[in-house]
């Protein structure tokens, strides 16, 4: 197994309830991994071309005041994390576009993992990516762990790796194996297909076999299944629920960086709708696992 280390975790927070959930998960992981934690709050800057009532403007705190209040909150959170989990943290407050501040900071500071709370979305037909969380998932070269709810236990025991006919990366499998080894978890390698066409299934089985070889070489527990449905995202989420999976590891497409606004439909639906944590890993050409001429795998 390729050596992957998670030494530096970035936790952006807007001090909301979902951010608190992410903080709790980050603290548990940091403790288990012996990793450093950076707590980050970014103040979205807005330019006002015209304000009719200057008294209204005066009633709002200045950016400097907001930064001061944010640092105080972050430092208090850091002290609480130290007391409860025994981990050290640093605090950083930035100004600018929230998603780009997070992505840029992670890249500049060699962050290994970003953990964020997300409110999710309604409906299964979303195209435009509007939230900061989804923009970070889209643009980040660093793996991003998103979560809507607090887990019942610390760590992960059943990790789902969904495999379909799209391009997938070795990093996705490797980071899933790192977490599986850390928490003695079982990996669920699940082939997803919209049809039972023999040729399509043959290609899917080639991909599955390659992932199985990687997991077996790491001497980890795993189970392989095949699931069928019209919506692969729904099928994957239903499988996760039925089998008590507590983490889904997916790829985000390398082409997403072109627009900065759109994810592949599968990744977008999973991030938006999963009630369990989702770990999104960037797919790059260099990271593809090649199983046979013309085939890349998840």
Provide the fold topology.
Blueprint: E1 8-12, H1 17-33, E2 36-44, H2 54-58, H3 63-85, E3 89-96, H4 98-108, E4 113-117, H5 132-139, E5 144-147, E6 158-163, H6 170-183, E7 186-193, H7 198-217, E8 222-228, H8 232-242, E9 247-252, H9 256-259, H10 265-273, E10 278-282, E11 289-292, E12 295-297
Parallel strand pairs: 1-2, 1-4, 2-3, 4-5, 6-7, 6-9, 7-8, 9-10
Antiparallel strand pairs: 5-10, 11-12
Helix pairs in contact: 4-5, 8-10
Written overview of the protein:
The protein is built from ten helices and twelve strands. The protein is an alpha/beta fold. The protein has two domains: 1-117, HUPs (Rossmann fold, 3-Layer(aba) Sandwich), CATH 3.40.50.620; 149-298, Rossmann fold (3-Layer(aba) Sandwich), CATH 3.40.50.620. The strands form two sheets. It has a ten-stranded mixed β-sheet with strand order 3-2-1-4-5-10-9-6-7-8, sandwiched between helices. A two-stranded antiparallel sheet has the order 11-12. Helix 4 (98-108) runs parallel beside helix 5 (132-139) and helix 8 packs parallel to helix 10. Residues 47-51, 122-130, 254-262 and 290-298 have low confidence and may be disordered.
Quick structural overview:
This protein is of the alpha/beta class.
Strand content: 15-25%
Number of domains: 2
| Computed Rg | 20 Å
Task: List segments where confidence is low: pLDDT < 50 over at least 5 consecutive residues.
Answer: 47-51, 122-130, 254-262, 290-298
Helix content estimate:
40-55%
């Amino acid at each position: 197994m390729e050596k992957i280390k998670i030494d530096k975790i970035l936790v952006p927070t807007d001090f909301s309830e979902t951010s608190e959930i992410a903080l709790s998960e980050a603290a548990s992981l940091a403790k288990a991994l012996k990793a450093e934690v950076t707590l980050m709050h970014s103040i979205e800057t807005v330019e006002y071309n015209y304000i009719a009532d200057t008294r209204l403007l005066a009633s709002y705190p200045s950016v400097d005041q907001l930064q001061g209040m944010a640092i105080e909150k972050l430092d208090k959170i850091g002290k609480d994390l130290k007391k409860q989990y025994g981990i050290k943290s640093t605090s950083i407050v930035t100004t600018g576009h929230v998603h780009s501040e997070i992505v840029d900071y992670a890249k500049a500071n060699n962050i290994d993992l970003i953990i964020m709370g997300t409110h999710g979305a309604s409906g299964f037909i979303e195209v435009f990516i509007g939230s900061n969380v989804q923009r970070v998932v889209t643009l980040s070269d660093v793996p991003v762990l998103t979560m809507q709810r607090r887990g019942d236990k610390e760590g992960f025991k059943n990790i789902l790796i969904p495999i379909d006919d799209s391009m997938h990366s070795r990093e996705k499998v490797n980071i899933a194996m790192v977490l599986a080894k850390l928490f003695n978890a079982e990996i669920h390698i699940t082939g997803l297909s919209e049809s039972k066409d023999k040729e399509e299934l043959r290609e899917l089985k080639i991909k599955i076999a390659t992932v199985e070889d990687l997991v077996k070489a790491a001497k980890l527990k795993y189970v392989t299944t095949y699931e069928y449905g019209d919506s692969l995202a729904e099928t994957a989420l239903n499988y996760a629920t039925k089998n008590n999976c507590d983490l889904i590891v997916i790829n985000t497409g390398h082409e997403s960086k072109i627009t900065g606004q759109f994810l592949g439909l599968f990744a977008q639906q999973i991030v938006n709708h999963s009630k369990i944590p989702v770990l999104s890993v960037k797919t790059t050409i260099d990271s593809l696992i090649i199983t046979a001429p013309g085939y890349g795998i998840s």
